[in-house]
Design brief:
alpha/beta; single chain; two-stranded antiparallel sheet; about 35% helix; binds cytidine-5'-monophosphate
Length: about 230
């Protein structure tokens, strides 16, 4: 049995600014997407069989040429993404083979430096029987819920809060069922499983698995890369 990795990379990255779609922005001379592919391949215990990458419509051929040298023996499938992240994941999921896959990872292209051990931890937990698995890290800020007028509603106990990363791992049938249900307002795939009443398992994530969102994140990404290259 093998793993399929869906990479939603169809976002325009408006908060990051710049001309190119976010996944094609470069760190250390290579795109975030290439770094993400390389990171997934480094997780050898995941037994990756295929990548399904959702890209901005119209960029399919260019992205295929860009990624081909990095996919190696792993099959590379490219699909035009949708309006929202969940649309992109659903469209990619349609290309995941029906047979021979026991784990589907969904991994944001915008998280280029996830350590291999985090990826392997997620896959191992799915293979051990957890139908939905997410990597998490503790939150360091105090988090408050606020209303539309900007008034604080309450302050959840910080020791019960975590920040969620990717790759998230799923038993394939569950992920298909989750995406056939109500996807409105979902900001990750685990949330769709929660809506089905499925227990979502957490595993330890990593600070290196942060998401490149704003321009300053590119500076952090450059410094992580420099550290890794020394
Ligand atoms: O915008 P955000 O940073 O939350 O996006 C997370 C990931 O989802 C990024 O890798 C982005 O390219 C992807 N995405 C997508 N399709 C969209 C919007 C975002 O594949 N319509």
């Amino acid at each position: 049995m093998s793993t399929a990795a869906i990479i939603p990379a169809a976002g325009l990255g408006l908060r990051l600014g710049g001309e190119a779609p976010k996944a094609l922005r470069e760190v250390g001379g290579e795109s975030l997407l290439v770094h993400a592919i390389r990171g997934l391949r480094a997780a050898t215990a995941a037994d990756l069989a295929c990548f399904v990458v959702a890209v901005p419509p119209g960029t399919e051929d260019d992205v295929r040429k860009l990624l081909d040298p990095y996919a190696g023996p792993v099959a590379l499938l490219i699909v035009a993404g949708g309006a929202e992240r969940t649309d992109s994941v659903r469209l990619a999921l349609e290309l995941v083979p029906e047979h021979g896959i026991d784990c589907v990872l969904v991994h944001d292209a915008a998280r280029p430096f996830v350590p291999a051990e985090v990826i392997e931890r997620v896959v191992a937990a799915v293979r051990a029987g957890a139908p939905a698995v997410i990597p998490v890290v503790p939150v360091t800020d105090t988090i408050k819920r606020v209303d539309a007028a900007g008034l604080v509603v309450d302050t959840p106990d910080r020791s019960t809060l975590v920040a969620v990363q990717t790759p998230q791992g799923f038993e394939p049938t569950l992920l298909r069922r989750a995406h056939n249900g109500d996807t409105a307002g979902a900001t990750d795939d685990a949330m769709l499983c929660e809506r089905l009443g499925v227990a979502v398992q957490t595993v330890e994530g990593s600070q290196d698995a942060f998401k490149v969102t704003r321009p300053r994140d590119l500076i952090l990404a450059e410094s992580i890369l420099a550290e890794r290259r020394t």
